[in-house]
Amino acid sequence: MTRDNTAGGSTARGSTAGGTAAGGTAAGGTAAGGTARGGAALNGAALRMAGRPLAAHLRARAPQLTRRVVARLLAELPVYAELPQEEVAGDIAGIVQHSLRQFADVLERRRPAGPEEFGRQRDSAALRAEEGVPLDAILTAYQIGAAMAWDELAAGAEPADLPAFQEALGYFLDFQRLLISSVSAAYLEVRQILDSQEHGGRHALMTALMTGETAGHRPAPRYAVLALAFAPHPDEAGAGQRARIAARRKIRRIRTVLDEVADEPAFTALDSSGGTALLPYSAGWDVLHDLVARAAKCADVPVTAAAEITGPAGIPAAVAQTAEIMDLVRRAGRPPGLYRLADVLLDYQLSRPSGALPGLAALLAPLDRKPELLRTLERYLACDLDRRATGAALHVHPNTVAYRVRRISALTGLDPARPGDLQLLHAALIARRALP
Predict the structure, then answer these.
(1) What's the pLDDT score for residue 198?
(2) pLDDT value for 429
(3) Could you give the residue ranges of the DSSP H alpha helices within 35-92?
C-alpha cells in the first residue's frame, strides 16, 4: 500500500507534506531550529531523500531544470515572453541556474544561506527595475522557479525520508525568504533612485547648465558636451514590451559607459535614438574617442557622437554646435564614431548662409536627372577615389564606377582626378546638402 502511494506521488507531496503540516513537527521544529536542522546536521553525512544526495542531485539537474523554468516563465508571464531573446538566454537563465546551484550549496553544507549571498539576484533585480519590468512579475518568476526546484527534490520521497524532508524544507523556506527580501529591496531602491533623479536636483542642474542659468548651483569646472545618435538594436524591431525593454537596456548600457568616464555621474537626456549628455570631465579627447567605441560595443549598436569640451558658461553654445555637427555628419553619410568641429570644418563653413551656396550647388545640376551618378559621386569621394571600394559599397563592378565617373566629368565639366576640380566637387555636394 505504501509502495502504491509512493509510486503515485502522493506520499512525497501528500502523506509526507500533509502529515508535516498537520503535525507541525517539520514547520514548527524547523522554524524553531530544532532537531530537523539541528541534530541531523551534526552527523556530517550528506542530506538524502528518495535514496539521492540532494545537493548533488540538484546540481546535476540544474541545466535541464533551468531550461524548464525559463520555458514556463515564457509561457505563463507575458512580460518575460516579451523580453529580448538575448536577455532571456543570458541574465534570466543565468540567474535561475545560479539560484539553483546556490541552494544546492546550502543543502550540501547543511547550513542556511546568509543575506550577503544574494548579490547576483540583487543586481539582476536592479536591471529589471531600470527596464521597467513589474516587481510582481519578478517575484512570481522566483516563486515558479522555487516550486519547480522543490518538486524536483521531493520527487519519490517516502515516509522514512521525513527527517530529511523537514530539514530540507527548513533550508528552502529560509532561502526563499532571504531571496525575496533581497530582490524586493534592490528593485525598490533602484526605482526610488530613478524617480528622484527624474524630478530632483540632478535634473534641475542639467536644465540650468543647458540654459546657462547656473546661479545657485555648483557645477563642475569643465564638461564634455555630447550629442549622441544610436542605431536601433535588432531587438527593438516592432512594438511591444520586447522593443521597449531592448531600448531601455541599450540606454542603460550607454549610460554606464558615460558614468565610468565622467568624473561624476553624467547628466543625460536620452531616448532610443540618442540625445544629449553632459559629462563632468577632466580627461582628454583620446578618452572620448575610446568612450564612443566602448559604448557601441556594450550596447551592440553603432554609436555616433559630436563633442565639445567647455566650461559651464559655454555649455549652451556647445549643445547647439554639437547638434549642428551631428546634423552635418548624418547628411554627409559619415560612419559612426566621434566627431569634433575640426572634423567637419569645410562642411560647417559651407553650411553657413552665403550667396555662394546656390552657385556651388548648381555645379551638380546636370546630375539632377541622374541619381545613380550623384550617388556614385558621393560614394566615390567618400572612398577617396577608390573604384573598388566604391563598387563594393554600391554593389557594382569597378569598371561601372569608372564609366560613371567619366559620365560625371562629361556632364559637369569637373574631373575628380584634378585637385582643383576635386575641391569644387566636395564643396558642391556640401552646398547641395546645406540648401533646402
Answers:
(1) 56
(2) 86
(3) 54-76, 78-81, 85-87
- The pLDDT > 90 percentage for the chain reads 51
For residue 391, give the DSSP letter: H
* pLDDT at position 413: 92
Cβ atoms of residues 100 and 66 within 8 Å: yes
Please name which of 39, 44, 30 lies closest in space to residue 168, comparing C-alpha atoms.
Answer: 30
pLDDT tens by residue, 263-278:
988 999 888 899 999 9
DSSP assignment of 15-49: IHHHHHHHH-HHHHHHHTT-TTTTTGGGG-PPPEE
Within 13 Å, how many C-alpha atoms sit on residue 93's CB side?
17
* Pairwise CA distance, residues 170 & 40, whole Å: 12
Judged on CB neighbours under 10 Å (0-12, 13-18, 19+), 426 is middle
CB 233 within 8 Å of CB 253: no
Render 334-390 in DSSP notation, one character per residue.
Answer: PPSEEE-GGGGHHHHHHTS--THHHHHHHTTGGGTT-HHHHHHHHHHHHTTT-HHHH
Which pLDDT value is given to residue 27? 36
Give the closest residue to 55 by CA, choosing from 139, 131, 111.
Answer: 111
Give me the residues of the chain with pLDDT under 70, please: 1-44, 196-201, 354, 436
- Which of 149, 189, 163, 166 is closest to 57 using CA atoms? 149
- The string of pLDDT tens digits covering residues 40-92 is 444 458 899 999 999 999 999 999 999 999 999 999 998 888 888 888 888 89
Assess contact for 303 and 228: CB atoms under 8 A: yes
Segment 2-55, tens digit of pLDDT: 333 333 333 333 333 333 333 333 333 333 333 344 444 444 588 999 999 999
Q: How is 197-211 classified by DSSP, letter by letter?
A: HHHSHHHHHHHHHHH
Write the DSSP symbol of residue 314: G
Alpha helices in 110-228 (DSSP H): 119-131, 135-154, 162-199, 201-211
Per-residue DSSP letter, 114 = -
Distance separating alpha carbons of residues 220 and 222, to the nearest angstrom: 6
DSSP state of 225: E
Closest CA to 280 of 340, 231, 234, 217: 217
44 phi-psi bin (left φ>0, alpha ψ -120 to 50, beta other): left
